[in-house]
Design goal:
Layout: H1 11-24, H2 28-33, E1 38-47, E2 55-64, H3 73-86, E3 93-103, H4 111-124, H5 135-164, H6 180-195, H7 212-221, H8 223-226, H9 233-251, H10 258-275
Parallel strand pairs: 2-3
Antiparallel strand pairs: 1-2
């Protein structure tokens, strides 16, 4: 195996170095396009096949929405060349692609203003794709729904971890057992995290490597521990399954309607009321 670090450069240092190289090479147009831009370095889990054991890597640039229309295939190809040039060779990342997207919700800028700017850019493009008029509004609605789901899922993790670290009525440490398939999924996710070190570490315990439905499986698998906290198994299973279904739709960029958003909100509120006095 090649002696690579597989450590990403700091994104701010990377784009600063890129600007310095562009200035030195007299690439004034490219330099101008990157004014106010940020970048994210995104190695994949696939080899680039350009160098032995080097990873196929993409650099994502977020630029002010009004500047998005100034980028084209030629400028992105040039950016790709310079990004690969400045990427530390011992990192083991070969820059194979560059993507440019609008920067939304930047500091000091209202999200509504950024969305309006992006809309103007899309409308100004020749032969542009006609997006539904309500797409941006639906995106904001899904962001709010996901916020509830994020809080609910992590609330359950904290609850389970709190109970697992407590002692039973006899003063003995509690021992939770995970279903075999949950153990397998946790192991696979940890292995994937080790292979893709650019991914953020999920958390300090195995519970952060589980999803909504698996949290429900853990509760049901240890019902003798959790029975006193819930009315019955069906009560908590139904609530978790309903929220998990909504989460999966949002995670795949699908839209959930007002009824489903109410389900998420009311289920979360119900769980909080049920467990609020215990944790």
């Amino acid at each position: 195996m090649a002696d690579y670090t597989y450590q990403e450069p700091d994104s701010e240092d990377f784009i600063a170095a890129l600007r310095a190289v562009l200035k030195n090479k007299g690439e004034a147009d490219l330099l101008s396009l990157l004014h106010g831009a940020t970048c994210t370095i995104s190695p994949s889990s696939q080899y680039s096949r350009r160098r032995w054991d080097a990873m196929w890597t993409e650099v994502f640039f977020e630029v002010p929405a009004e500047r998005l229309g100034d980028f084209n295939e030629s400028t992105e190809t040039n950016l790709e060349k310079y990004c690969d040039l400045i990427m530390p060779k011992d990192a083991g990342f070969d820059v194979m692609s560059v993507s440019v997207a609008p920067r939304l919700g930047s500091q000091g800028t209202r999200m509504e203003d950024e969305v309006e700017a992006l809309s103007r850019v899309l409308e100004s493009q020749e032969n542009h794709i006609q997006l539904p008029e309500d797409l941006f509004l639906k995106g904001q609605e899904m962001a709010q729904a996901y916020h509830f789901l994020y809080l609910a899922e992590n609330f359950l993790r904290v609850f389970i971890e709190t109970i697992a670290s407590s002692k039973d009525e006899a003063g003995n440490p509690r021992q939770l057992t995970y279903p075999r398939d949950v153990h397998s999924k946790i192991r696979n996710r940890k292995q994937n995290e080790q292979r893709n070190k650019w991914l953020s570490v999920r958390g300090g315990s195995d519970l952060f490597y589980t999803d909504f439905k698996e949290l429900g499986d853990i509760i049901l698998n240890n019902w003798e521990v959790f029975a006193s906290f819930f009315p019955n198994q069906a009560w908590i299973k139904t609530k978790i399954d309903e929220m998990a279904n909504c989460r999966n739709l949002i995670a795949h960029n699908s839209y959930i309607g007002e009824h489903e958003r109410d389900v998420v909100r009311l289920n979360f509120q119900g769980i909080i009321r049920q467990l609020g006095s215990f944790i």
